[in-house]
Write a structure and sequence with these properties.
single chain, Rossmann fold, Isoleucyl-tRNA Synthetase, Domain 1, seven-stranded parallel beta sheet, 49% helix, binds ligand ME8
């Protein structure tokens, strides 16, 4: 069993979880569940980024202490992840003592390596990015990512990290390990950045009290990114003994806006501390509405609890990964268009294609064969299942979740087409064709069983329900699939997996 350590970005504790956060956590959860299905020993960590100016400012605006705010938000995020069936093994919060210990140990190691020095910082700071900005990065004097936030001129005595010293080693690493930054568009972006040269960055802040105390330097806190990135090692016990059993991470899942922090700053910190680099950083795309970043009001309209209530948690997971490719942005023209698309996908893919296929197959097996199913093989549908399985595994191993999901749904479409072309009700009327009917029903049962297993990472609760309706007990792992097919389909197929949604006419 190989260890598979998987992480996501830790979310800023300055507001409610939104669809961008949900998309990332669901996608990473699909990867975690796929690897468990494939037999890996998965350790999956998510969490909260609770320090920094942005969080302190939000707490001040609400007239409460930062700790009070982050405690409430952590509970809110965790409740939503619970509802969405996120199967994380740990939830790291950067205000936890285990995190402080790890960050301080890492900073000391980086200092011992000679990579920290004191200097004066003069320049702009964007609290949205929690990052210093060069003049050349600004557009009309504003941060292009957070144009609505004020950019602040900052002068501070800070500890600096010699990031510039790592440029060549990072370039060499990416050239030797092209899989390190994925998808390719992100790799090109990072290569261009490295080719342009790197500047040293602040590792401490002297005027931001809400943070991890900088070791041996009164009044300084650790710069929030220098504090946040090490969550990936604090969560697995750094600098304690157990850490080495889990590090390095197999995969860091993050959004494209923070690729630079994960593919330049983080690996440089690790190199400085003499630690191994993660195998892969995957920078997924953005969910957009009307061409732009999700605004506060759009995020509010697309409230996660309401979206989960609309068609259930699994349908929402399905929709996110069916509609938003894992390697690119997806723009919905408006909030209404997002909801319409959700309803349409739900009815067409889940209620019609998948739900009806299950009911029709179980009903026919009952009616014509009393539920008994012979071993499958030899039909066109069997060939389509074999092909889809191969495509699925290939896509999922390469983190092309949208292609993996499509491969699973190919079986559903092929099975529905197969019913139309084979017309089992006609076969049932011709005693000479009994064997053909056996083979058709067997292929359909196999198609559904395979689909249930392949969809398990995407719609875990509904896939388990499907498996049960097919007469199975515990879901098999991928490798067991061919040996654990249903041999008898029970009666109870008529309770509906995904009830059809009839939308109330919109007023006005
Ligand atoms: O960046 N679509 O936190 P965050 C898709 N705390 N993904 C989106 C998105 C959207 N519209 N909006 C945000 C932070 N994300 C830091 C991370 S990691 C050591 C520290 C993604 O709450 C974003 O790209 O702003 C990031 O990966 C995650 O949500 C958290 O964003």
């Amino acid at each position: 069993m190989s260890r598979y350590y998987l992480t996501t970005a830790i979310d800023y504790s300055n507001g409610d979880p939104h669809i961008g956060h949900a998309y990332e956590k669901v996608g990473a959860d699909v990867i975690a569940r796929f690897h468990r299905l494939a037999g890996d020993d998965v350790h999956f960590v998510i969490g909260m980024d609770e320090h920094g100016q942005k969080v302190a400012q939000e707490a001040a605006a609400q007239g409460r202490s930062p700790q009070d705010l982050v405690d409430e938000l952590a509970a809110r995020f965790e409740a939503v992840w619970g509802r969405l069936h996120i199967s994380h093994d740990d939830f790291i919060r950067t205000t936890e003592p285990r995190h402080t210990t790890a960050v301080q140990a890492l900073v000391r190691r980086i200092r011992d390596a000679g990579d920290l020095y004191e200097d004066r910082y003069e320049g702009y700071y964007c609290t949205g990015c929690e990052a210093f900005k060069r003049e050349a990065e600004l557009e009309d004097g504003k941060c292009p990512i957070h144009p609505s936030r004020e950019i602040v001129w900052t002068e501070e005595e800070n500890w600096f990290f010699r990031l510039s010293a790592y440029r060549d080693r990072l370039l060499e690493h990416i050239e030797a390990h092209p899989e390190f930054v994925q998808p390719e568009s992100r790799r090109n972006e990072i290569l261009r950045l490295l080719e342009g040269g790197l500047e040293d960055i602040s590792a401490s802040r002297s005027r931001v009290p809400w943070g991890v105390p900088f070791p041996d330097e009164d009044g300084h806190t650790v710069y929030v990114w220098f504090d946040a990135l090490p969550n990936y090692i604090s969560a697995i016990g750094y600098p304690g003994d157990g850490f080495a059993d889990t590090w390095p991470a197999a995969l860091h899942v993050i959004g494209k806006d923070i690729t630079r922090f994960h593919c330049v700053i983080w690996p440089a910190m690790l190199l400085s501390a003499g630690l191994e680099l993660p195998d892969v950083v995957w920078g997924h795309g953005f969910v957009k509405i009307g061409g732009g970043k999700l605004s506060k009001s759009e995020a509010k309209q697309l409230d996660l609890d309401q979206l989960i209530d609309r068609h259930g948690p699994d349908a929402f997971r399905y929709f996110l990964l069916r509609e938003i490719p894992w390697d690119r942005d997806r723009d919905f023209p408006s909030v209404e268009a997002f909801l319409d698309q959700f309803d349409e996908r739900y009815n067409s893919d889940l209620a019609n294609d998948l739900g009806n296929l299950l009911n029709r197959t179980v009903a026919m097996a009952r009616k014509y064969r009393d539920g008994a199913i012979v071993p499958p093989g030899g039909t066109a549908l069997d060939d389509a299942i074999d092909d889809a399985l191969e495509t699925y595994v290939d896509a999922m191993r390469q983190h092309r979740l949208h292609d993996g999901l499509d491969a699973a749904m190919t079986i559903v479409r092929a099975a529905n087409g197969f019913i139309d072309s084979e017309e089992p009700w006609k076969l049932a009327r011709e005693p000479k064709r009994a064997e053909r009917l056996d083979a058709v029903l067997a292929a359909l049962a196999r198609g559904l069983a395979t689909t249930a297993v392949l969809l398990q990472p995407f719609i875990p609760a509904k896939a388990a329900e499907m498996w049960e309706r097919l007469g199975g007990d515990e879901m098999p792992a991928l490798a067991e699939l061919p040996h654990r097919l249903p041999t008898a389909l029970p009666e109870r197929a008529d309770s509906v997996l995904f009830p059809r949604f009839e939308r109330e006419p919109r007023s006005g």
